[in-house]
Amino acid sequence: MGGTPPAPEGQMRQVAIFRHNLFKVSEPFITEQAEHLRRYHPLYVGRLRYGAPPPGAESLALSDLVKGWPIPFIARQMLTLDPAPYLRLLKGRSPALIHAHFGVEGVYALPVAKRLGVPLVTTFHGFDATLSTAALLASPAYAHYALGRQRLARYGQMFLCASDFIRERLLGMGFPAERTRVHYIGVDCGAIIPRAPEEEALEILHVARLVEVKGTEYLIRAFALAAPQHPNARLVIIGDGPLRAKLEKLAQVCGLAGRVAFLGAMPHAQVLARMRRAAMLVLSSVRTSSGRVEGLGMVTLEAAATGVPVIGSALGGIPEVVADGQTGFLVPERAPEALGSKIGALLGDETLRRNMGAAARERAAQKFDITRQTAVLEDLYDSLLEQE
């Protein structure tokens, strides 16, 4: 690759943060990481903006190139992988490298990076490493990814994995071990201050998109088993999705009317504020019939940083966050009885909750602090550019 020249002294290099759907409320971790860069300047690049960019951030979207309804124009690029629209969008810009979030984006960013002569970094978060090939091919949005994944593995410069679990999945697909490494994005342990004991309420918190992989059904059934012994406890569910109506009906059938609150999707700051009230966070994820598995569960890191114990399913990347019996509990997937037992154990023991919460915070600060993790990321960027 020809690459871009070094930035003038005193001027930061630019990194294009590539995500098709920019600034989604369910993906604060992408901007959170980018805004913690200190030696690189992020430029957000994608198809459409789904929310507001961070204050002062630069963003470019394919929708900027057309007047009126942009979907037909974007659909053509989606079907062809033609890099030309992105090259038009980036005209006059000189990113030193491209960092794509999700393997799908990596496949689309690859020809753009090649034309610009810059390295491509791709972060894999979950579904992009676990969803079956058949399921990917059945989706118009993911079919090109299924067909182009091996090309990405061959020509991408670096592959970052949200967990050890994700890395093992990628290696099994043929990604090169020497270019595939684990990199936890982390959470802002400076901004997230451990909550005070008096902030806690007897609330079980679940933050998730309401889709099969999150296993919300099993959490509701588990709460129904624990609820009679803990009449003051409530289950609070933050998130929306296609299963919401079905889950609301299940809560009623289980006799939990008035004890389960469906709050819908909320801005990230409000989620963090609500987390400070939680007695525990539960991520009851499952393996779906299409093969999808939880890659890590960023919300578990946020809970840990807040000093909240976590109960999670013992699969995917969740065990990399939850130290069973120390910072929370791990339970089998699709097992309401086991999950209900652990929920009851935490609800009935305030000292246990506080001890586990304190241990979770310490673990988050030592292993998952975003400032430290982003400094490591910038060193990885440097190592690629030094090879040019």
From TrEMBL:
Pfam families associated with the record: Glyco_transf_4, Glycos_transf_1
Glycosyl transferase family domain span: 198-363
Domain (Glycosyltransferase subfamily 4-like N-terminal): residue spans on this chain: 30-189
Keywords tagged on the record: Transferase
GO molecular function terms noted in the UniProt entry: glycosyltransferase activity
Stretch forming the signal peptide: none
InterPro entries: Glyco_trans_1, Glyco_trans_4-like_N, Glycosyltransferase_grp1
PANTHER family xref list: SLL1723 PROTEIN (PTHR45947:SF14), SULFOQUINOVOSYL TRANSFERASE SQD2 (PTHR45947)
Name by which UniProt lists this protein: Glycosyltransferase involved in cell wall biosynthesis
Source species of the chain: Acidocella aromatica
